[in-house]
Design brief:
Largest sheet: 4 strands, mixed
Structural class: alpha+beta
Radius of gyration: 21 Å
Number of strands: 4
Distance between the termini: 52 Å
Mean pLDDT: 86
Strand order of the largest sheet: 2-1-3-4
CATH class of the largest domain: Mainly Alpha
Shape: globular
CATH topology of the largest domain: Peroxidase, domain 1
Low-confidence stretches: 1-14
């Protein structure tokens, strides 16, 4: 049998996409169960707070990212550490129990995907849509409010903004709303102009 067809010896793009797909599936199962339990116990508001706090911590803490993704940590290490983090963050009992179960099953690595799926489920339940907004500088409260109102008028639903800053944009915004991408950044305009100039040349 040629080595490239032996299981585990193909390290090409297929393996990467397959593992990403497996991770998404695991994250979706935990996220759906977590959401349904919170909904049944009328704990969606607490869950929304928990997920927002976890998402923010994942974005800012290299230690937490190392804890959930590094194979160096044992189940016990992960379980104790995530319990301590959850207690410090004041997470709800439902979230604490879910994290403990994920640590026990060595599934904490899907946490970033889980937070996104739960946020989408909560937004859908509330009749909201989430827009991922990247700007060259941090939006002021007034700018965020105006943008949310503009997008609401466009899609006919309340829009929750998830913002990020990318200084390389120079100016303008990139707004991702579902599968729709709106790019008004100067960087995008410069790239379009460069392409047009190449065509002329």
């Amino acid at each position: 049998m040629p080595c490239d067809t032996m299981p585990g010896l193909n390290f090409g793009r297929d393996d990467v996409s397959e593992s990403a797909s497996i991770s998404s599936g695991i994250a979706a199962r935990y996220a759906t169960a977590l959401f349904e339990l919170a909904k049944e116990s009328k704990g969606l508001k607490a869950l929304e707070g928990d997920i927002g706090a976890l998402d923010a911590t994942l974005a800012s803490s290299a230690d937490l990212n190392a804890l959930i993704s590094s194979p160096v940590y044992t189940r016990d290490d992960q379980g104790k550490a995530i319990a301590a983090i959850a207690a410090k963050m004041g997470l709800s009992p439902l979230m604490v129990n879910t994290l403990a179960l994920m640590a026990q099953k060595r599934r904490l690595f899907v946490l970033p995907q889980l937070t996104k799926i739960v946020q989408d489920l909560i937004s859908e339940e509330k009749g909201e849509v989430t827009a991922e907004v990247t700007s060259a500088a941090k939006l002021s409260a007034a700018q965020a409010k105006e943008l949310a109102a503009t997008l609401k008028a466009s899609v006919g639903k309340d829009v929750k903004l998830k913002t990020a800053v990318d200084e390389s944009l120079i100016g303008g915004l990139i707004v991702k709303l579902g599968s729709t991408m709106i790019d008004t950044s100067v960087k995008a305009k410069l790239a379009a102009l460069q392409n047009a100039m190449k065509e002329v040349g």
